[in-house]
Amino acid sequence: MMIPERPALERRVLAALEGSGEAGARIPVLLGGCGSGRTSVLLRLRDLLGRSSTQYIDVEKIATTPERFLESVRRGSPFPAHPYGEGATAAGAREAFDASLAFFDTSRPAGEGPATFLLDEFLELRTFESFPGLRAVLRDTVGALGSSGNRFVLTTRYAARAHRLLRDAPARFEIIHVAPLSVAEIRATIAHGHDERGGEDDRMRDELARLVHALSDGRPAYARLIAEAASSVEMRGPSDPVSALAALLAPGGALSNACRFSYELRLHRARGYGALKAILDVLSEDEPLTLTEIALRLRRTPGSTKDYLSWLEDVDLIASRQKRYSFADPILRLWVRLHGRPTLPTEEETAREVHAYVLAHLPATEPMLALAAPVDPEKSWGIIEID
Predict the structure, then answer these.
(1) Total domain count for the chain?
(2) Which of 324, 339, 354 corresponds to the end of one domain?
(3) Whether residue 162 is found in the same domain as residue 218
(4) 41 vs 89, more confident
(5) Domain range for 26
(6) 376 occurs within a structural domain
(7) Which pLDDT does position 97 carry in this prediction?
(8) SS3 118
């Protein structure tokens, strides 16, 4: 499965950059959780706009010190060399950060027209706020980009934090929520199987796309792993995304590792690490729950529990609807159910939890529900091995 093309989203971002409509040129801010495809959209935009006039920057990887950030941005730039920030390393953190903003503002490609910067996970610039003289880095960045003649596309996985930061930002910033992949988008990117099934091939890929969409919640990272695993295994009949999902979530599986990364990364960006893990454990057992129900199970006061919940919402691990809380990512909830325990899940336990997840997420009309017979504890579920 290749990087999905998302024509509608790409057109909207390009229209914002080019100033279509009465609002003029805008700065798109793409919001989406882990695995939602934010990075792949930026990489597609880099190719669509041209690499000579566009610079992609993974802020999360290079937001170390302002001095080293400036050095990395300048070293990796396709734009003609300029003396921005010369000597900034010796001058200090504030001067290096100001030089970075100047670089974003005044860089130009070799030809005519503005430069375009694609800043992936731009909220990680907040790292610099621990340095002297840099207490308002994100506000300063928003102000500088908003008044620049260059073009920018920003992304972040932290939707709540981005909304709070941009609440009073210039109208030039346009928030765009990265929607899940549609069935058609998944279908368009599923690789052909190893064997040719003649007239059956299209029908089977259509069915595979529907199943992958339902099981992955439309998240590109999950959809790619499930589709590739299901298609790579020689099986009788159509590919089996259900068995693929079980294998991917087993200890050491690719999807299990991706969930662990997402889980730990966002918890470490929040306060109250241990208590937050406890709440996620409670919600993995039963959701949605009210504040009072969570407080009782956590054995904490409603006041402290409300703080914990707000910190989880701040890093987009949970969502609240009608005062009831649940996981924002159903696959992550399944992972916590499997791996938030003192011992590794067995093959049977993994299969049983995946079976329950399938029952809850596949439409009742799907033919794959034939697999959803009552669980036989003695049955070997035959979890496939993924190389």
Answers:
(1) 3
(2) 339
(3) no
(4) 41
(5) 7-177
(6) no
(7) 95
(8) strand
* Token reading at 233: 């295994």
Provide the pLDDT confidence category of residue 170 given band limits of 50, 70 and 90: confident
The residue type at 173:
F
Position 295, amino acid: A
Q: What is the pTM of this model?
A: 0.85
What is the longest distance spanned by two Cα atoms in the chain?
Answer: 71
Per-residue pLDDT tens digits for 102-149:
999 999 998 778 999 999 999 999 999 999 999 999 999 999 999 999
Based on the domain organization, do 161 and 33 belong to the same domain? yes
CA atoms of 56 and 119, how far apart (whole Å): 6
Dihedral (Cα; 280, 283, 285, 287), 10-degree rounding: -160
Q: β-pairing, 116-120 with 289-290?
A: unpaired
Q: How confident is the model at residue 2 (pLDDT cuts 50, 70, 90)?
A: low
Give the C-alpha distances (Å, rounded to integers) separating 316 from 30, 140, 313, 329. 14, 24, 5, 9
Give the pLDDT confidence of 156-167 residue by residue, as tens digits. Answer: 999 999 999 999
Average pLDDT over residues 339-344: 93
Shortest CA distance to 249 belongs to which of 165, 308, 335, 185? Answer: 335
The pLDDT assigned to 42 comes to: 95
In this structure, the answer to whether residues 122 and 240 fall within a common structural domain is: no
CB-CB contact of 305 with 320 (8 Å) = no
Sole residue written with tokens 């006061």: 301
381 inside domain: no
On whether both 173 and 189 belong to a single domain, the answer is no
Question: DSSP assignment, residue 371?
Answer: G
CATH of the domain at 297: 1.10.10.10
Q: Using alpha carbons only, what angle is made at residue 40 by residues 39 and 44, rounded to the nearest 5 degrees?
A: 120
Residues 36 and 152 in one domain: yes
